[in-house]
Amino acid sequence: MTIANFIDMAFLVFLGITAFAILKLRALFAVVMLSSVFSLVSAGLLVHLDAVDVAFTEAAVGAGISTVLMLATLALTARREKAPTRTHAVPLIVVFLTGLALVYGTLDMPRFGDPQAPVHTHVAPKYINDTEKEIGMPNIVTAVLASYRGFDTLGEVTVIFTAGIGVLLLLAASIREPDGLRIQTMDHHLVLRVVTKVLIGPILLFALYVQFHGDYGPGGGFQAGVIFAAAFIIYALVFGLENARAAVPGQAVRVLVACGVLLYGGVGVVSFLFGENYLNYSVLGSTQVSGQHLGIILVEFGVGLTVAAVMVSTFYAFAGQNPPIGDEDW
Amino acid sequence: MSQIVIDGVSWALLIAGSILVLVGALGLMRMPDFYTRMHAAGITDTLGADLILLGLMVQAGFTLVTVKLLLIGAFLFFTSPTSTHAIANAAYTAGLRPSISEWDTDEPPEGPERDHGEEDPRP
Q: Would you call B79 and A199 a contact, using CB atoms and an 8 Å cutoff?
């Protein structure tokens, strides 16, 4: 067994242990924390599989934002799961059979890393050979995501947009809009406030770097959006929801949710008007490469905008459900 | 020759960092109560991680990688002690008291007393 395999195995064993612990525990706070650990470990696994772009998102969303959202939900409900009243027999059999079918399915799959696997022989060689000439950017992942597979990504952004709208529709009726600004003072969180103040700037800067450096290194709109939103949510957690809403009102965020998708779709319409196919960026610049660059930067910015805005407005919707947590309640 | 020195220094740093992290993990398992566990994990964690990063920096030399490692180190230097502080602070505010202290026999200090094992009284 090579060292690389050994590291993969170690990560997978950790994932398995965490999953079992999540199943067995009844204390929901611990379950939330463990699911955060699960995301962090899978982010490590993804880094080791050279899928840095995915690992970014997994770490920021899974370990960061969704943990905060689940904690916000936990504050509204009980801290312990009720003991099950029914037997586990039928679900166990269903899960066992499904798992068996899935394992049987993997027998047909090519071996891990097999160069003859269909995924490596179909379109991947074309992307790897032609990206340099057609798109002219070192990060092939970004070229595939934003240009070759621009339609898929537009679909993904629309999915995020729709999901955000759905959450807002479900929760918006009970969001407490701030009635006059009440500035919360969190005096004994002095250390947190100081450190957060120091860190938020660099985090936002890093998000912008990830956004606009996505052509050259790992990153892009999805990653930048969640990092940006994470910085914002930290601010809201430490300085209070009212202060965050004063900085960026919920109404403005909801408008931005739509703006990102509009920007993405708009770039496609512009290339339409130049007489080319939808989302063919080559006509946007004087040369094919410069057009592709401009198009990719624009659609990635649209992705980042929508992702960040959806995350922040979802957080607003969840956190707005609670009466603001006073210091004495902790 | 210089390569041997670089390897030696970076190995020493990596091993020192690893030992600190291991000691922290051991302390987390063996210490008697919450605060002593935090103490074991929180302090060794920051120094251990930063020593490992320092060892990697020595290997990388004057490159962009070193700058990135430096940034990660600075980030850990801020966040790791802060998170330890935040956890300990939250536990104390929630009413968890150190189990080995004179408070066990005397009057408990100010603050809401709450046994950490019990169910949250809030609905």
A: yes
